[in-house]
Amino acid sequence: MESDLKRIGAHHLNQEQKKAVTQTEGRILILAGAGSGKTSTLCYRMAHLIENKNISPDSILGLTFTNKAAQEMRERIGKIICKEKAKKITLCTFHSFCMQVLRDHIDKLGYTKKFSLYDEYDMKRLTTNVAKNLLDHEGKLPSLNSTLELLKESQKGSDQSEEHISFQSNWQKKFITDLSQSVEISMRAYNAVDFDSLISLTVKLFRNHPDVLAQYQNKYRYIMIDEYQDTNPLQYQLASFLSSKHNNLCVVGDDDQSIYGWRGAEVKHILKFNYDTLIKLEQNYRSSKNILNAANAVIQNNKERHTKTLWSLASHENPLHVFHAPTEQEEATAVIDRIISLKQQHKYRWKDFAILYRSNQLSRAFEVALMQASWRDLDGWKRGVPYEVFGGEELYQKSEVKDLMAYLKVISNSKDGESLLRIINHPRRGIAEKTLDLLTGKNRSLKLSLWEILQKIKQDSSDVQDLIHEIPTKAFKGIAQFVELIEEAKERFESNSLAQSLDWLVEKIDYKHAIEEEVKSEKMQSFKWDNVKECIQMLKTYEEDLEKTPSLENFLSTTLLDEKKFSRMQQKGDDCVNLLTFHSAKGLEFPVCFLVGLEDHLIPHEKSLKETGLEEERRLMYVALTRCKERLFLTMATNRKKHGKDIKSTPSRFLFEIPHHLLTMISYKL
Questions:
Q1: Cα–Cα nearest to 32, from 281, 311, 345, 391
Q2: What is the pTM of this model?
């Protein structure tokens, strides 16, 4: 065994990691505690299969929850063996894997292979329109947020999902059922799927078409799933289908870090996993002993968990500092003052600091304090500490980028009614809302796609003459020009480079003029135009990076599945203080952490206590504690504003679960 490990450079691993790498057959559960080197272990395991067990890389499937994790693993494996072999491993997210399956086989479910992928905005708009039709309602509907939540709940895929939903009445239950069915019919008519249905449709495909499932079962002899504690019922079913032939399924995760119950993850999947081999990675390579002892003490209060205790050989020992300030503003100022002081005393960089909070609403006070803070460097006094808030609006969320993506979706899939409605009068073509109402009414009555109605209008077809007479002349011309534009664009995107074709389209519709009409500020015009150019550059990069023949359909699906391609999050070179929620911090680590707002109505969060329970809130606290490597500060405010009123706070109950000897109380004032 040691010679095999030396061959792939894995002889330095600890004993449990070595066991995880070399135990390849059967159902294996690897419980990987925070900071225990699970990514390295998984990478060496895949390398071991290829180099020492002579398993073809094509026979290995690795499923992750983020594109970043998949990319990082592929790069690491490429350094252990070689890039060519690493590229042949199917290593991707659940959604990306299902997208690949559906691109090849979705025609068996009544769709065509050039389907569109809808995001949350598209789905909300579609569902609202379908609800209007079901209710026979014109004009603006009251908020449908609670209805949309119930609809999502009913589609999660759990056998018990419906019986756990609290419907207000039998009418509401029937309405949700009818709405779900109508949305599904509309999606098929638009030849579109959303993120959630990528997985549910793949499960449906495998269940109803055993021949398709057999192809993938035969191909993938070894399956590995990262962050298994985050799987939902549909992902669990998918893994069960794929692994049922060879039964070589290795799942890696940590039940103590299961914090996504609110979006359908079920911790029972890892708690009740039927394993042949159990391996625990408990040695932590990240945090000091004091931090680990505090985290262990908190999480051990959970009843539903696998028994494990993190430990470390780390020598650096700093006490956990606790302070409470009179108000949230004074808490924020005290945190920023300490950050400036620690940076000067210990030569930290700004990016070594993280301010972590349970809810996004807490960030504002810290942002203000960071902007107003004064500090000194070699060049003299400066005002404002550089910072980055994780989870701000990204490039792919900008309206101008959404417009261009909608154009590309319609060029790729003309049945995509939602994207078509977004762009048909943008830039303006004289097609007003009244005309759009007439068009959508006609497409419903004739049971044709909106695109087919537009084509009939342009062709002056006999079965839409009544509609043509109702449409203003300007709108008629606008529709004809729009149809010609899309038809010409289809030809260009088929025969030319994608980036060149988008460049042509932007110029053809004079999108720069549309931006100038929309916003008057030159600075904002420049900002929006830069986003447009960045979008074109994205297509160019995609074409240069892709080994197989580029296609518009592939670009759209990979881009929407990997929105970080459009991300403007801080680059590695940026030196900024990090502001992020406990949830956003998962998987990250920082030398110095400030866990702020540690008050009982915030953590545990009073609303989440009802929805996902105390144990998930405790796991969230555990995740936050284990982000820190060296220096940890736990802070709170004695008074906090709620709905404009000062409310007296009490410390989080989780603080009382940390042994007193690990905590050092300090004044909030430096």
A1: 281
A2: 0.81
Put residue 110 in one of left, alpha, beta given phi > 0 → left and psi -120 to 50 → alpha.
Answer: left
CA distance 21 to 18: 5
Catalytic residue among 23, 39, 71, 440: 39
Tokens of residue 388, six digits? 């980055």
- Active-site residue, selected from the candidate residues 16, 19, 22, 38: 38
Q: How far is CA 82 from CA 40, 230, 516, in A?
A: 16, 30, 50
Catalytic residue, candidates 16, 122, 227, 615: 227
* pLDDT tens digits, 185-195: 888 888 889 98
Please, which residues have CB within 8 angstroms of residue 434's CB and are 6 or more apart in sequence? none
581 is catalytic: no
| DSSP annotation string for 32-76 | E-TTS-HHHHHHHHHHHHHHTS---GGGEEEEES-HHHHHHHHHH
d(CA 432, CA 414): 21
Is 492 tagged catalytic? Answer: no
Residue 572's pLDDT is what?
A: 44
Q: 641-649 — which CB contacts under 8 Å span 24+ positions?
A: 641/328, 649/599, 649/600, 649/601
Strands 374-377 and 380-383: antiparallel
CA distances in angstroms from 466 to 396, 438, 442, 456, 483, listed in the order given? 40, 10, 10, 12, 20
Ranking 45-59, 384-398, 601-615 by mean pLDDT, the lowest is 384-398
Q: Given pLDDT bands bounded at 50, 70 and 90, which one contains residue 530? A: confident
Q: What is the pLDDT of residue 368?
A: 87
Per-residue confidence (pLDDT) for residue 140, from 0 to 100: 54
User: If you ran DSSP here, which 8-state letter would residue 380 be given?
Assistant: E
Q: Which of 122, 194, 196, 226 is catalytic?
A: 226
Can you give the pLDDT at residue 123? 84
Tell me, what amino acid is at 151? L
Query: What percentage of the chain reaches a pLDDT higher than 90?
Result: 58
Q: Of the listed 85, 409, 456, 627, which one is catalytic?
A: 627
Instruction: Provide the 3-class DSSP secondary structure of residue 277.
Output: strand
Other CB atoms within 10 Å distance of the CB of residue 353: 26
Cβ-based neighbours of 657, under 8 Å, separated by 6 or more: 297, 298, 301
Catalytic site includes residue 437: no
Looking at mean pLDDT, say which of 35-39, 427-431, 592-596 comes out highest: 592-596
Q: Report the amino acid identity of residue 518.
A: E
Q: Please state the separation of Cα 31 from the chain's center in Å.
A: 23
For 266-362, list the strands marked E by DSSP.
277-281, 320-325, 353-357
Known catalytic residue: 68? no
Residue 38 among the catalytic residues: yes
According to DSSP, the β-strands at 60-64 and 222-225 are parallel
Cα 542 versus chain centre, distance: 21
- Write the CB contacts of 429 (distance below 8 Å, at least 6 apart in sequence): 475, 478, 479, 481, 482
* DSSP, res 571: P
CA 333 to chain centre: 32
Among residues 257, 558, 581, 612, the one annotated as catalytic is: 257
Classify the C-alpha dihedral 38-39-41-45 as positive or negative: positive
pLDDT at 376: 86
The span from the CA of 48 to the CA of 28, in Å, is 16
3-state secondary structure of 27: coil
257 is catalytic: yes
